[in-house]
Amino acid sequence: MRGPHNIFRLIRTGATFERTGAMRQVLEAMEAPASLRIAARVLGWPFKWLGIKGDLQQPPVTRALTALGPAYIKFGQILSTRPDVVGNELAEQLRVLQDKLPPFPTAVAKQVVATEFGRPVEDVFSEFSEPVAAASIAQVHRARLIENDSDVAVKVLRPRIEQAFRRDIDAFYFAARMIELLSPGSRRLRPMDVIAHFEGVVLGELDLRLETSGAAEFAANTASDDGFRVPAVNWALSTRRVMTLEWVDGLPLGEVAAIDLAGHDRVRLGEKVLTTFLSHALRDGFFHADMHQGNLKVAADGTLVALDFGIMGRIDEYTRRVYAEILIGFIRRDFRRVAEVHFEAGYVSPDRDVDEFARALRAVGEPIFGMDASQISMARLLAYLFEVTEKFGMETRTELILLQRTMVVVEGVARSLDPHINIWKVARPVVESYIADHVGPKALARDLVQTARVLARFGPKLPQMAEAALIAQADRTSQPAPGSRWPGAILVAAVAGAAFVLGLLI
């Protein structure tokens, strides 16, 4: 029975939040109703002695989550991508949450590697270092392969981390149910869906084969990108609990002084961070969703190197086109077009007034464009845009929120390298290039060809489709008018036949 265990974890969590002063901040940020606030305070206060103090130098919420352990740290990081749930202010605090934890012994890591590979570590690696980085889920070692004397990065899951996360996730679900029970109004935030989203992300990170796959796909997409590199994947030495990548030397982008000392062009690097992210998001629809300074290096030749592929974002072609049109509309200050795009995409209900929506968008955009170039923030604009669209009844779109939150991080990295970077000037060529290739006559022709190819696959099924249409029509009426069922069958045959022929020609 997990009930008593979940109750104890919930009490301990509440007590820690109460003891660190985080409880009040969280409840206020989520605009919790009085009933939930009272219940939370009553639950936490009597057991305050059970709570963990944490690092007193950290902000209350960050301190509480860090003190409670890896699952809570990861939960906070994922919530930082959901300002629609926790609010912009708390999301901003959670964004800087670090998951650097004490490493586990190298001997234990070697044992995990040996078990996964089915042979001693010494048979694979001539060298295997102490941990060079340790996070909430895994840690990284530098090693040298016996096979070709090359250096690799070996990522190893923490021992028993899967069981620990599953226990905490179970407790999170219990807490979500209690929140919905005590505060029906909180259901608009969909607590159970938030936990389900967290579970999906974490379970993906707990299987390093999925991260390896993401790294391989990202590497294939960006193979031709000048000045950008993804370490090569070693599939033969990657399993569920171990991931092996090419080792790439370089300076973390957070070490600005060292970057200057090495003679790198920080202005160019800042532009590269921004343009590569936008290219990956728009061109590929698959982007690195955790591009902070610690996950980016600059190699000796100035190449930007991406690391850690546990959190990747994906957006479909249609959403990319919508996003690009929204961005280019703001770049050109064509707020009417931005409004129309939202209506065309179905993001805003058609019963709303498009001119009123355009005015609201102008109120968001114009003040930003009145700022100095170094102050213009695309991330801030997107945050304001979501606030406006929410007021007009736009439903939350998780993929766009993840994109916007990643944009916040990317913009921060770019500005740390070049405080005077003009985000819009740098972004404009990338967005306009995508628009030219994917919106307009060229894109329409490509879409028609693709549609024809898809429809052509139904050609062999033409007789069955026509027969099914006839039978369905006959079932709807016992005495059909003469010829009344044939137009539908003829239409089915004509469309399928034309598509089949066109597909053969293509």
* Helical residues, percent: 55-70%
Strand content: 5-15%
Major β-sheet, in short?
4 strands, antiparallel
- The number of helical elements comes to 22
Brief characterization of the structure:
The chain is built from 22 helices and 10 strands.
Please supply descriptive tags for the structure shown above.
506 residues, alpha+beta, Phosphorylase Kinase, domain 1, four-stranded antiparallel β-sheet, four-stranded mixed β-sheet, 22 helices, 59% helix, 9% strand, globular, disordered C terminus
Structure description:
The protein has 506 residues and is an alpha+beta fold. The chain has four domains: 3-99 and 162-204, no CATH class; 105-158 and 207-247, Phosphorylase Kinase, domain 1 (2-Layer Sandwich); 249-439, no CATH class; 443-505. It has 22 helices and ten strands. It has a four-stranded antiparallel beta sheet with strand order 1-2-3-5. A hairpin with a 5-residue loop joins β8 and β9. α13 (266-284) packs antiparallel against α18. Mean pLDDT is 79; it is low at 489-493 and 495-506.
Question: What's the topology here?
Answer:
Layout: H1 3-20, H2 22-29, H3 34-44, H4 60-68, H5 70-79, H6 83-86, H7 88-95, H8 106-117, E1 125-134, E2 138-145, E3 151-157, H9 161-182, H10 191-205, H11 208-221, E4 228-229, E5 242-246, E6 251-252, H12 256-261, H13 266-284, E7 286-288, E8 296-298, E9 304-306, E10 312-314, H14 317-331, H15 335-344, H16 354-369, H17 378-391, H18 398-417, H19 423-438, H20 441-456, H21 462-476, H22 486-505
Helix pairs in contact: 1-3, 1-4, 1-9, 2-4, 4-5, 5-10, 9-10, 13-18, 13-19, 14-15, 14-19, 15-16, 16-17, 17-18, 20-22, 21-22
